[in-house]
Amino acid sequence: MNPSSVDAGSQSLSFAIFAALVSVTLLLCIMTSAERDDLDEFYTGFRTLAPLRNGFAIAGDYISAATVLSTIGIIALAGFDGLVLALSTALSLLLLMVLLAEPLRNAGRFTMGDALTHRAPSRLVRLAATAVTLAALLPLMVFQLSGAGHLVTLVLGFEGSSVRTVVIVALGTLMIGYAAIGGMKGTALIHIIKLVVLFGASLMLALLVLDKVGWDPSRLITLADVGSGRGAAYSRSGLLIEPTSVGKADLVASALTVVFGAACLPHVTMRMYTARNAPDIRRAMSYAVMIMAVFALFIAVIGAGATALLGREALAAGDPEGSTAILRLARGILGDSAALSTFVFTTVSTAVFLTLLSSVAGMILACGNSLAHDLYAHVMTRTGEPSPRRELLIARLAAFAVGAPAIALAVLVQDKALRSLIILSFSIAASAIAPALVYNLFWRRFTRLGLLGTLIGGTATAIAVTAFSTTISGTPQSLFPDRDFDVFPLTTSGMISIPVGFLLGWMGTFLSGRRRRERGRTEYRIAEPRLLAGARRR
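RE: above sequence
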């Protein structure tokens, strides 16, 4: 059943719920906004979130529309390959908890630039950190703003690009307001609310799927094989990426890109600075990992259930990427009961809408904070630090400076296949930010030249390889399906750009010379007690 064919009652109920959510979340942002000109309050919320709530906020920030819409769609259409990517998403949060969470919390204060300059101040590193933050998050923001426009018009029964444009501009402006007014506390509260609603809706939908197949997981897989139209191939690798020698390596590289990229996206690492101490961030991350593991199970059931109960043709008819699979399943799973069908569809739509809303707000906040704290306060201001009031004003204005281009780009590409934007964001994070953090936090002799080489070279390589890959041109699912200038037969750039990012860091350090390497070692030795144990120098 087409989710756009909703009755008037469903549209009215959905509109009422959306309007109530907008009003409540805006009110919460105003109530939790910074009351004083205090940077700690705006950037970290005074680190007052208890580990459980912080864990919910981290998981909420981590679960974006890419997870809810795109990953479920890939599972529905590609089966096993989609499940690999879903498990990689959950694994990346575990990697963040085990390897990076505590050192990041101890090294940084407000932004990724703080963590990267924990050894010694550097304007160039701050500038590069700001550029990489924007490059990694802007494509993801564009994808989710476009998705928000499609979702609202789909649920409310509107059609036409002009209506979607109005919706994208209105919702984008609202999300900018959330970030600029609420700061870290406001966005954390929205993430917690989003997670509770999304978790409840996903649990309900997963239970309905299992009830339809008689609570038999093997029958669910069998029906999914039949519904996919590919038979047993649905349960094996090869539907998303061709099972050639390059394809197998590409699937592994894609999974690694998700693992490293999702763990190092700036709006996720930003949450590490909100914990009071190392034990608190460990506990918060433990809660977040458990939540993500359970949610990965939910989306696996939902994705397979969409194929089993609706069939591949119905899912791909209106959206070749399958991004509306969860909405189509929510609308069609109880087609024999109009009232219950409307309730399920509205609940799931509300959860997805909240996911889009909160995710973009968190990304805008991360970009705005980097522009204000890294670029303005530490690069542009050359005569001492600016006043907290002025930096806070710049941070709020920066949210608008980031959000406006994102809105404009979302309007321009609203009718295109945008999965390539998700891939680009994850590739930049995996190729530039991940090696930069690993080297900077754990390699004693790492130098500034190596750090700049990793940040700039990793980002440039990820962009270049992605631009000439099959995600941009050459296939019906590409950003430009009518063009064919792909050079690399790859789904993500990770096979090339991740090794290049690590290699450039090593080469830059080696070429810096022995004196600079020894200086890096001395700087690391001075910072090591704070980095590994959270100790502060007196």
